[in-house]
Amino acid sequence: MRLSALVVLTVVLQLAVVSEIPLLGTNADLAPLLVLSVGLLGGPVAGAAIGFSTGLLVDMSLVQTLGLSSLLLIAIGYLAGRYGEVGDRTHALIPPIAGAVGTFLYTVAFSISQFLLGVDSAVSPLLIRDIFAQAALNGLLAIAVYPVVRRVLRPCLVEYFVPRRRSATTALRTTSS
Amino acid sequence: MYKKSVRRRRAVLALLVALSIALLTAYFRESASGGLHAVQRGFMEALAPLQEGATRALKPARDFGGWVGDVFDAKSENKKLRREVERLRSQLVATQTAARDRGELKTLADFNQSSLFPDGYDHVTARVIGRSPTVWYSTITVDKGSSSGLHLNQPVVTGDGLIGRVSTLSPHAAQITLITDHTSAVSAQVVPDGATGLVKPRVGDPSDLLLDFVEKGRSVPKGTTVVTSGWRSSRLESLFPRGIPIGEVTRVDSKERELYQRVHLKPFADLRQMDVVEILIPSGGGGSSSAAERAQTIP
After folding, report:
1. 197-226 in B: which are within 8 Å (CB) of A?
2. For the segment B56-70, what is each residue's pLDDT rounded down to a tens digit?
3. Number of domains, chain B
4. Domain that holds residue A21
5. Is B69 among the domain residues?
């Protein structure tokens, strides 16, 4: 329920507010940030599922090619989830780096998909600047988005308690030695 | 146990990917009147009130964000004025919002009364309630739909000039495909010289349009105006009426080996900052819209 509300809220906010605010010559994109955050916090399955539903909602509301954003966001969510499992997701720099890298991959993949699906128009080199600017902007925005998503999802996340148990075990071992 | 969990995870992933690909394939194969397109239109209609509410409620936040963006671009000036701006911020946001709306409406009113407003057309004024975040899909959503008399492919303008056409309709909302969208093409003419061509976008740069297929040897001086050419034949007619301003010539690319020259334009309308737009509807209701719908592939 929380996740659904978060997805809908993100898409509405994106369309009504964030897309209207140009920064660094481009707009931030909340969709990959939400999917990355859920992937990092909830694991690959949650990341992929939220990627699918967010992508579907984005494609539906913007009347875009249905399924394309879903496909790309599934990959982003899954990869973020895998990283969350094997890497150190508690480091303070992870959200901005993941935000920038994930957005970069998403926008590059989106552009490549558009080429593959057929583009009749000329493409300006400024598109490359836009991709980098959006990645940088999303990297900065991830610093704010990640804690918000963590706060909203905290009660739903079983994994959230895992580090606490581990640290307790570590403490016991230290005492006994 | 671990293997089972990995297997389950892979199964979920495969299912979601397969579902996406199935949607993608089905969407591509069906026509614009197909089931998935209808679901999209229905969804847009359902989302429109929510979007409109959010747009209105969060307008101060958006204006504040826009203000932040402007300030970000003008760092040096910002440092000098920061103290004063902070004191005046709330007052300024309210005043600027009202002034901006008034300015846009006044420009539109001037356009309606000018000789540039096409004969045989009325207009419906609409507010922008959503905008596509990607440069690939240059679209906006407005708060008027078929219940206000809108039809597919009707031209959309601001007080400065042409911005696009109605591409998707629901009863109370419509999606406008801007002239910077990669699917857009508008037949146009340079005035007063008369050279004609097709205005197409350059994806990624909304301030640069291309007037393509202009005969080599035709003089297209920098600074001249490009307007819609608005042609009509016995069976088909252009979607855009004649004489709507599109942009101003900025430079011309002419290579020896190419048959045509490419003219670069700067659009008159600010396609990234619009709050109010006008949809041009043929006088006497949607009568001629069927002609427009028939000619929907003709730019």
Report:
1. 200-205, 208, 210
2. 777 777 777 777 666
3. 2
4. 2-176
5. no
